[in-house]
Batch of 4 targets.
Target 1
Amino acid sequence: MSTKHSSTETVIGIDIGGTGIKGGIVRLETGEMVGERFRIDTPQPSTPQAVAKVVKEIVDELMTRKHAPAADAPVGITFPAIISHGIARSAANVDKSWIDADVDKIFSEELGRDVQVMNDADAAGLAEARYGAGKGVKGTVLVITLGTGIGSAFIYNGKLIPNAELGHLEIDGFDAESKASASARERDGLSWEEYAGRLQRYFSHVEFLFSPELFIIGGGISKRSEDYLPALKLRAKIIPAQLANNAGIVGGALQAAVHFKITK
């Protein structure tokens, strides 16, 4: 499904997670959320049909609002998987029946409008690069989210290089996220000083491989960045993300607007 879209100042973004699906209306010029987010628990089991119905519920609710986008505006959707040409190639924290599913088609048919689906970490990175901590930064920006695992987005001169799975780099014989994620800190009972030591090992390795201009740290643990970021010694600047939990919604909306040429 692809049509010519009416001009619109806002686009709906939907962020699909393992426990919740949330959506909001995003003003494209500024990246600001217009009004409150709307959230519904992720259905269990989180099959394609069940998730698509919840996404439609959220879009229908948002479309009743004063600042809703044009009726034919595309919807941007983030998904916890590797997304290649609209197809899910993995399934993190959602039902395994999503693997190899045509995610674009499933949602566009359910919503009756164009959609653009992207990896959730990529969406957060894109939002930070356009509207947040990475705005205006030239060269390579790496957005790293520290949570249950380690998510990553690779941005070069403001453009997204999709599906960079830097949390799965092998370091010292281990998957990096098994040692340096926020959940690993809690599991192993690490002090902030001990955790900073693990992060130092991880970020030094990533910096050696990619030589970024800037690291942006996201995920819930970014709220405690003063407890560990000052201890890290890197050539690149490293700072916390600005958009917090809205980053996925904002990035998803932006990607849809760019893909369908509503905005540059």
Target 2
Amino acid sequence: MSQSNPSSGSMEHRPIQIIPSVLPADWANMGQCVRDLEAAGVDRIQFDVMDGNFVPNLTFGPELISACRKYCNVPFETQLMVSQYNCETMLENYVQATKGPNGEPGVVIAHVEANVNLHRTLGKIRQLGGSPSVAMNPHTPTEMVKNVLDMVDHVLVMTVNPGFGGQAYIPTMLDKISELRKIILNKGYDIDIEVDGGIKADWTLSQCCAAGANCFIAGSGMFAYPTLKEGCDALREVAKDAQAGKILQKQ
């Protein structure tokens, strides 16, 4: 479970994790892409699952995620931007596809807005051998996830509306990250805060990190570099600087 001793949960800084989204990748060459991302030094790889219902876009099913597993050993993360029906009928497939090379729990993220019975969904992810996590859209208040924090390993604060890559970061999410971090520390939970949407190796990542996030999902913000390693290193450096107190301001 995610609850831990308050003293261990209140460590000043949690480990930084750089997590590329594969949305900007060459989808016809995804196996090589995940192999290259692993070589670049990323901490996890995120698959944005979209069903054309909860969000207008249509992307990956569990078969593609499973097919990528044999190309790398780096942990996977699946964000389920799907309707409740899709989540309920295919949850086991997603959890299995997201597992590590030796069956280690992969991070499976359920959206609070898409699951009427959120406790049931998160509990099933854990039961099936996954790492349950919850995501919330920009307009969704922190209050919506407070009652499931004892069930999750990560909370994802969306800094754009989900559905498409390359969108502009929404800076008003900083208050939500700070609020969430305070709740997590006060309760002594062992939970990472992720941010996703318009995150680049600049003030966007820096200020999210200063607010309390430690997991940074970047798509175009990483793939824009000449090499994936340069992108990964640049993102990590900005996060490390922010944790050390060197926080970038909006240009």
Target 3
Amino acid sequence: MTLLIPDEYPKSLFRDDGKRLDGRDIYDLRPIKMEVDVIKNADGSAYIEWGNNKIFASVYGPREVHPHHLAKPDKGILRVFYRMATFSVFDRKRPAPGRREKEISMIISDCLEPVLFLELYPGTSFEIFIEVVDADGGTRCASTTVAALALADAGVPMRSLVTSCAIGKIDGKLVTDLSGIEDKAGDADLPVAITWFNDEMSLLQFDGKMTKGEMDTSLDMAQDALKKIYDMQLEALKRKYIKIQKDVQDMEVE
């Protein structure tokens, strides 16, 4: 991966052959790899590689709320802690969580709460710890996606998974799944998340400039991309239970 600073951004984000700088067409996602059950001392966990992003998520709960005054008598609470490792970005960041990390923690929590049956767990909390060890654009979307996968791995009752992706505009063209350089040097960024049990958006943010027609097209592009990522989430969960089934069958044979 070639790291660039703002003064070194390329004049064009498309190659001479019409493809993006990383070789993708406008509708292509970056390579995505997902795994679950990667942190053994967590109640549930997941890992995602999304382009050059590498992110872990671990889930703990239901458990006692600390500090106690945050507990709610009629339902559980969801707490999300999104953190970026000091070495995850080009300019080394401070170890303490910054304003952006706190904001993204809140955004991810708001995305995931609609799918959880928190009313079944009064007075308790679920906590999700997200660690970004390598960042290259779209970490809030990748973190939301992997956090939902970790909740499912933990066996937390859910109405559905949550999936997130960003549509953007670079050099006047709409593209799916912005890379880091496209996010920084592009014209617009539209992160979207969907809750599949009702096909509603639980995240819609926007930065930049688009026409109304471009916005409508972007949402259509997002729907197509989110379905592909959702299928990857399901496959990651299926692989775990297929492995468990195979291990049980092997034990029975022995």
Target 4
Amino acid sequence: MKKCWGLALAVMLMFSTPAFADTVFEGRIVPDEAVSMRAPFGGVLKRMDLRAGSVISVGDPVAEIATTRVMATEDGVVTGVFAEAGDSAEQTVLYLAPVSKFTISATISKAYSSPETKYVTIGETVYIRCTKDGSHKAIGKITAVDDSAYTVETVAGELYMEETVNIYRSKDYNSKTCIGSGKVSRTSVIPVSGTGSILRMRVEDGEEVERGQTLFETVEGDIDALAAMEATLRSTVSGIVAEVSVSGGQKVTKGDTLFTCYPNGTLIIEFDIPQDFLSDVKIGQAIQVYFDFEEQKTPIPGTVTDVSYVSESSEEGTPVYKGYVSFENTGDIREGMNVYVSIAEEANR
């Protein structure tokens, strides 16, 4: 053998091949370059399903971000939807036409003169009749009270705009239960918006909704056009998880690193080159790779792709440089494995 050091002699004894005429270097399997998956939008992580060392494929679920649900404030009908998933929620996303068609601004000034009729409470069911001829009737609920003034919203019946009505506590419109009068107006549709960006729409134009029903869900920040519109985040890479940067319950913003991964097919060999052997290693040189597998009979071919220009010190204090080799992964080779790089004697001449 022309040159050797360290464990080279022990390595050569392992192989009944022409390796006796080769230069042998110790090395290890390392990732060529890690890639990161970043949060496509912001929010609080409900969970993170990864851990370092896990094998992951494109499309695998990795985490879930909690959404903000924008809900209907009352029963009604969705009238006009002006946004879709991916749009900003800061604008008017939709309008909600309340079931209550009419609103009555009333006072107790014309109520029957008794202590009971001079006091009203929010939530009371009342009975409404027009003052003109009594032909227009409705049922309503008191929704707001401000001293002697109060507001009634109808839940059934038909009235005319701008007409004057009397309001009663009894179904038979007994004058002794009259708690005031007021003027009818059309209940305004409610514009609904939110914060951040819309991840999912939950209703359609013309759909009837109930109070507390989810209209749409939002997340923080802008959403890129190519981002999946779902709260479950799925891996965009395949490989081995190198590091998980976040955990469940943590708040993230768009662009934050969720995890880094060593993509499939990016493992390389890093090997040590003592200064005295530096001239024996050349970029583009064909080499053979041996593992500590007892069953390995045939070396794996590889190619030297790079040699560092910056040295490190060995245990003996002599300069050591790094060489790098690309090779074909047979499927059972993993990051961190020890290998031996063999350069044929003929290649050094």
